[in-house]
Amino acid sequence: MILIPIILVVIFLWFIGESNKLNRYVVLIEESKKTGDITLVKRYDTISEMLKVAKAYAKHEEKVFTELVTMRTGGTVQDTNRVIANQNDVLSQIRAVAENYPDLLSSQQFLNLQKEIASENEDLAAAKRIVNSNIRVFNQAVVSFPTSIVAGIKGMRKFDFLEEELQGKRDLNDLNYDI
Protein backbone atom coordinates (compact mmCIF):
# COMPACT_ATOMS: atom_id res chain seq x y z
CA MET A 1 0.00 0.00 0.00
CA ILE A 2 2.78 2.48 0.87
CA LEU A 3 4.72 1.38 -2.21
CA ILE A 4 2.33 3.10 -4.68
CA PRO A 5 2.74 6.62 -3.18
CA ILE A 6 6.54 6.14 -3.13
CA ILE A 7 6.54 5.12 -6.79
CA LEU A 8 4.36 8.12 -7.68
CA VAL A 9 6.69 10.48 -5.80
CA VAL A 10 9.74 8.98 -7.58
CA ILE A 11 8.04 9.36 -10.97
CA PHE A 12 7.04 12.94 -10.12
CA LEU A 13 10.58 13.83 -9.03
CA TRP A 14 12.02 12.19 -12.15
CA PHE A 15 9.59 14.18 -14.33
CA ILE A 16 10.61 17.44 -12.65
CA GLY A 17 14.30 16.59 -13.07
CA GLU A 18 13.90 15.79 -16.78
CA SER A 19 11.75 18.87 -17.30
CA ASN A 20 14.38 21.08 -15.67
CA LYS A 21 17.11 19.47 -17.80
CA LEU A 22 15.18 20.26 -21.00
CA ASN A 23 14.54 23.82 -19.79
CA ARG A 24 18.28 24.29 -19.16
CA TYR A 25 19.04 23.09 -22.70
CA VAL A 26 16.62 25.65 -24.12
CA VAL A 27 18.32 28.40 -22.08
CA LEU A 28 21.72 27.27 -23.41
CA ILE A 29 20.43 27.41 -26.98
CA GLU A 30 18.97 30.88 -26.46
CA GLU A 31 22.16 32.12 -24.81
CA SER A 32 24.41 30.75 -27.55
CA LYS A 33 22.09 32.18 -30.20
CA LYS A 34 22.36 35.63 -28.59
CA THR A 35 26.15 35.34 -28.90
CA GLY A 36 25.67 34.60 -32.58
CA ASP A 37 23.33 37.58 -32.87
CA ILE A 38 26.05 39.82 -31.44
CA THR A 39 28.40 38.56 -34.15
CA LEU A 40 25.73 39.21 -36.79
CA VAL A 41 25.32 42.79 -35.56
CA LYS A 42 29.09 43.36 -35.77
CA ARG A 43 29.10 41.84 -39.25
CA TYR A 44 26.15 44.01 -40.28
CA ASP A 45 27.97 47.13 -39.07
CA THR A 46 31.11 46.16 -40.99
CA ILE A 47 29.08 45.50 -44.14
CA SER A 48 27.46 48.92 -43.68
CA GLU A 49 30.92 50.48 -43.49
CA MET A 50 31.95 48.62 -46.64
CA LEU A 51 28.85 50.00 -48.33
CA LYS A 52 29.77 53.55 -47.35
CA VAL A 53 33.28 53.13 -48.74
CA ALA A 54 31.98 51.49 -51.91
CA LYS A 55 29.32 54.21 -52.36
CA ALA A 56 32.03 56.82 -52.55
CA TYR A 57 33.47 54.99 -55.55
CA ALA A 58 30.27 53.86 -57.23
CA LYS A 59 27.46 56.30 -56.71
CA HIS A 60 25.50 54.88 -59.66
CA GLU A 61 25.50 51.36 -58.19
CA GLU A 62 22.63 52.28 -55.86
CA LYS A 63 20.75 48.98 -56.35
CA VAL A 64 23.45 46.99 -54.57
CA PHE A 65 23.49 49.37 -51.64
CA THR A 66 19.77 49.34 -51.06
CA GLU A 67 19.56 45.57 -50.68
CA LEU A 68 21.11 45.38 -47.24
CA VAL A 69 18.28 44.41 -44.91
CA THR A 70 17.43 46.54 -41.93
CA MET A 71 17.12 43.44 -39.78
CA ARG A 72 20.46 42.98 -38.04
CA THR A 73 19.72 39.83 -36.06
CA GLY A 74 17.35 36.92 -36.36
CA GLY A 75 14.65 36.03 -33.87
CA THR A 76 14.41 32.35 -34.70
CA VAL A 77 16.92 29.95 -36.17
CA GLN A 78 15.19 30.38 -39.54
CA ASP A 79 15.40 34.19 -39.23
CA THR A 80 19.10 33.92 -38.43
CA ASN A 81 19.64 31.70 -41.47
CA ARG A 82 17.88 34.33 -43.64
CA VAL A 83 19.94 37.21 -42.17
CA ILE A 84 23.19 35.32 -42.77
CA ALA A 85 22.20 34.46 -46.33
CA ASN A 86 21.20 38.07 -47.03
CA GLN A 87 24.45 39.42 -45.60
CA ASN A 88 26.39 36.93 -47.74
CA ASP A 89 24.49 38.06 -50.84
CA VAL A 90 25.24 41.72 -50.11
CA LEU A 91 28.93 40.93 -49.55
CA SER A 92 29.06 39.12 -52.89
CA GLN A 93 27.49 42.12 -54.59
CA ILE A 94 29.91 44.53 -52.89
CA ARG A 95 32.84 42.42 -54.08
CA ALA A 96 31.43 42.39 -57.61
CA VAL A 97 31.12 46.18 -57.58
CA ALA A 98 34.63 46.51 -56.13
CA GLU A 99 36.06 44.53 -59.05
CA ASN A 100 34.82 47.30 -61.36
CA TYR A 101 36.71 49.94 -59.36
CA PRO A 102 40.45 49.12 -59.03
CA ASP A 103 40.95 52.16 -56.78
CA LEU A 104 38.35 50.77 -54.38
CA LEU A 105 39.95 47.33 -54.36
CA SER A 106 43.31 48.85 -53.42
CA SER A 107 41.85 51.28 -50.87
CA GLN A 108 43.39 50.64 -47.45
CA GLN A 109 40.06 51.24 -45.73
CA PHE A 110 38.34 48.69 -47.98
CA LEU A 111 41.16 46.17 -47.44
CA ASN A 112 40.88 46.65 -43.66
CA LEU A 113 37.13 46.10 -43.83
CA GLN A 114 37.65 42.91 -45.86
CA LYS A 115 40.01 41.62 -43.18
CA GLU A 116 37.47 42.53 -40.52
CA ILE A 117 34.74 40.66 -42.42
CA ALA A 118 37.00 37.60 -42.68
CA SER A 119 37.55 37.71 -38.92
CA GLU A 120 33.84 38.15 -38.27
CA ASN A 121 33.08 35.23 -40.58
CA GLU A 122 35.33 33.06 -38.42
CA ASP A 123 33.58 34.33 -35.29
CA LEU A 124 30.20 33.65 -36.89
CA ALA A 125 31.23 30.12 -37.86
CA ALA A 126 32.37 29.46 -34.28
CA ALA A 127 29.10 30.86 -32.88
CA LYS A 128 27.09 28.70 -35.29
CA ARG A 129 29.03 25.60 -34.18
CA ILE A 130 28.21 26.37 -30.54
CA VAL A 131 24.51 26.98 -31.27
CA ASN A 132 24.28 23.80 -33.34
CA SER A 133 26.10 21.81 -30.66
CA ASN A 134 23.59 22.98 -28.05
CA ILE A 135 20.71 22.22 -30.42
CA ARG A 136 22.16 18.74 -31.02
CA VAL A 137 22.23 17.98 -27.29
CA PHE A 138 18.65 19.20 -26.86
CA ASN A 139 17.41 17.32 -29.93
CA GLN A 140 19.04 14.11 -28.72
CA ALA A 141 17.30 14.47 -25.38
CA VAL A 142 13.94 15.22 -26.99
CA VAL A 143 14.03 12.05 -29.09
CA SER A 144 15.51 9.77 -26.43
CA PHE A 145 13.26 7.59 -24.34
CA PRO A 146 12.14 8.24 -21.59
CA THR A 147 12.96 11.98 -21.81
CA SER A 148 10.88 12.10 -24.99
CA ILE A 149 7.81 11.49 -22.82
CA VAL A 150 8.52 14.63 -20.78
CA ALA A 151 9.28 16.62 -23.93
CA GLY A 152 6.04 15.46 -25.50
CA ILE A 153 3.99 16.40 -22.45
CA LYS A 154 5.64 19.84 -22.41
CA GLY A 155 5.10 20.26 -26.15
CA MET A 156 8.83 20.52 -26.85
CA ARG A 157 9.98 19.63 -30.35
CA LYS A 158 13.35 19.39 -32.02
CA PHE A 159 15.01 22.68 -33.00
CA ASP A 160 16.19 23.31 -36.55
CA PHE A 161 19.92 23.74 -36.95
CA LEU A 162 21.61 26.87 -38.22
CA GLU A 163 22.51 26.24 -41.83
CA GLU A 164 26.09 25.88 -42.98
CA GLU A 165 27.06 28.18 -45.81
CA LEU A 166 27.91 25.90 -48.71
CA GLN A 167 28.20 28.57 -51.38
CA GLY A 168 31.44 28.11 -53.30
CA LYS A 169 32.22 24.79 -51.64
CA ARG A 170 32.37 21.44 -53.38
CA ASP A 171 29.19 19.47 -53.42
CA LEU A 172 29.85 16.30 -51.47
CA ASN A 173 27.53 14.43 -53.82
CA ASP A 174 29.91 15.22 -56.70
CA LEU A 175 32.89 13.60 -55.00
CA ASN A 176 33.95 10.38 -56.59
CA TYR A 177 35.44 7.84 -54.23
CA ASP A 178 37.24 4.90 -55.77
CA ILE A 179 37.76 2.21 -53.17
From TrEMBL:
Q: Where in the cell is it found?
A: Membrane
List the membrane topology term(s): Single-pass membrane protein
**Record-given protein name:** LemA family protein
User: Which family is annotated?
Assistant: Belongs to the LemA family.
Organism of this sequence: Oribacterium asaccharolyticum ACB7
| Ranges that cross the membrane | none
The family database entries (InterPro entries) matched by this protein are listed as:
LemA-like_dom_sf, MamQ_LemA
Q: What is its main location?
A: membrane
Keywords, alphabetical? Membrane, Transmembrane, Transmembrane helix
Q: Does the keyword Oxidoreductase apply?
A: no
GO-annotated cellular components: membrane
Top-rank taxon? Bacteria
